[in-house]
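Dear Dr. H.,

I hope your travels went smoothly. While you were away I took the liberty of generating a structure for the chain from your last submission, since the lab meeting agenda had it listed for discussion. I wanted you to have the full record in hand beforehand rather than looking at slides cold. The sequence, exactly as received, is reproduced here:
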Amino acid sequence: MKLAFAASAFALLAIGCTTMGGPAPLSPADYAAILAAPDRTVKHEGLQGADQADDAARKPAEVLAFMNIRPGETILELEGGRGWYSRILSEAIGPSGKLYAQYPPEFAYGDAAYKGRQDAGQLANTTIVKSHFDDYSAIPSGTVDKVIWILGPHEIYFTPANSTGLGDEA
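The corresponding predicted structure, in token form, is as follows:
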């Protein structure tokens, strides 16, 4: 009996240690290539400056490595803002990946920036999801590999005009 229990426990442990198949995570060289893209030096419509200007402070290569981003993944980016990370994530997951860049309708400042990026040929694998944080009906159930919320948490106490809280109806 003890042997059967031990064997079962070991089998369950071994199953839990397996790794998922698919492409390997990106390498430091992959991150460097994404971050060095010439279009990241251009100020697009709706942006305050070129994307590369924020790299030193935001450390995107380190963040992507921590998140173990892989080509082909489907990612939901919460509160995508003006698309700074959306641009990088879109490149990191590649043409076989899918990015859902979500932001609440009250955060309309992102509209021009996302349009500028799309007009520049970026974000081809990205769907903009303008919805409240409790509405993901535009995203097919069970399709997302990772949900990330990178730059938005500093706005958690933001209260849009005519509402009682972020995303709440007045």
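Two observations you may find useful: Confidence is low (pLDDT under 50) at residues 2-19. Residues 57 and 107 are 23 Å apart (CA to CA).

With kind regards,
E. W.
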